[in-house]
Model the fold of this input.
Amino acid sequence: MHEWDADTRVDPTGDGRFTAHLTDRWSGPGGRPNGGYLVAFCLRALGEVLPHPDPLVVSAHYLRPGVVGPVRVDTEVVRTGRRLSTGEARLSCGDREVLRVVASYADLGAATGRTLVLGEAPDLPPPDECVDVHGGARRSDITVADRVDLRAPKPHGWAQGRPTGTPHTEFWIRFADGRPADTASLASLVDSAAPAVLELGEMDSTTVELTVHVRARPLSEWLAARVTTRYLVGGHHEEDVELWDATGQLVAQSRQLALLPAG
Amino acid sequence: MHEWDADTRVDPTGDGRFTAHLTDRWSGPGGRPNGGYLVAFCLRALGEVLPHPDPLVVSAHYLRPGVVGPVRVDTEVVRTGRRLSTGEARLSCGDREVLRVVASYADLGAATGRTLVLGEAPDLPPPDECVDVHGGARRSDITVADRVDLRAPKPHGWAQGRPTGTPHTEFWIRFADGRPADTASLASLVDSAAPAVLELGEMDSTTVELTVHVRARPLSEWLAARVTTRYLVGGHHEEDVELWDATGQLVAQSRQLALLPAG
Done:
């Protein structure tokens, strides 16, 4: 079993409720469980209660920081239809709700309609010609960086103490132990790298809401990521992520609204 | 009172519940209430129960078509904090839930952090030098087009039977009776125009989920809109909208996931 599957396990306790355990192995700055890691528990649980196999669109509102330890996930089946089904999941640490997710599921294998792709995958050299984006800047509190490999032609500017001034990064991403991404884990991978605003010299950013569109089942282990922020207004910014597989297929698109720390 | 305010009125019945009436005055194809119109009822109700004045990020999952007539909105205050508060609203027609919204509110007047804008407002001539985007193609079932003015240098290609082949449109938008947009109505205006995929010769598209980021309080009646679809995959597509006020301020950004009719 891959570490992702072991570390996102949910156990049903009946009536659409689940228990689980947040590990300290997928944490961001300050040892707080990564936002993408929190989403995973909600999607594992919704995958158990909804009839369709693939999350198609996931919206996640972050309410409080997650806390390592036992958690509860309560699900509700909101609607099931032929083409789509929708559910809600609430992740709680103790009696405090940490994350609320509403997600619509579909069968991406049955999506046979028209295709027209007007963007392109990031133009990156092969992963084995790339280096760790963190350079020598790995921090012991950020354990998610040990579990998710990120590679680019050269380390990110911010990781070398020289932010580029441009909030745009491109890199390869995969689970470090070689676990293939599936449609559910794409919703976590889009939130597994450092925010692009670090290239503006910012030190951190807090996600308020994350929406993920899953577009296709990935066909390669390594995925090419493009991360962009275009509008930072009054300390609020969006961050857009695209993930493409190595066959040139767009597999996920995400957007989050995040806040810089209050001045 | 402007027609928008009258037609989105909600009446509290206690315990965070509201009754309202869906009119036939803001409908899209087939006389189905427009998706942006449905969101409005949820935000009117959440505005009554949350302490912050402005929707900051709104995610809306569309479950079924709305039906003209009496509706119910049930709200839940999920969390209230100093900087943000979050609530959920469920809009039901009869006993069928039509729309589920989760929204986080803030005080945009207090957003005093860093600003860096890397995109530009659409480059449009003034509204009084523009024409109705529908040309002569107004349909009697699409009543929202009577309530929301849309103007561009020339009518949209699809409206003249000549789709441009490029799913990108830019135009001015405002309430037809001159009501100024506020932060809550921005979340409806982003979904009040025809989808950009009409420029690909498609006839319709169904929204599954709509996320709106409200960035600033609008300072002009007319807003400049940019609507873009870049990825149509297996009949699923995103649609991105930006709204800018006439002072050159980005006021809202939205993305929806939508489906073309099943083949």
Observations:
- The mean pLDDT of chain A is 96.
- Chain A touches chain B through 52 residues (CB under 8 Å).
- Residues 35-49 of chain A form the longest helix (15 residues).
- The radius of gyration of chain A is 18 Å.
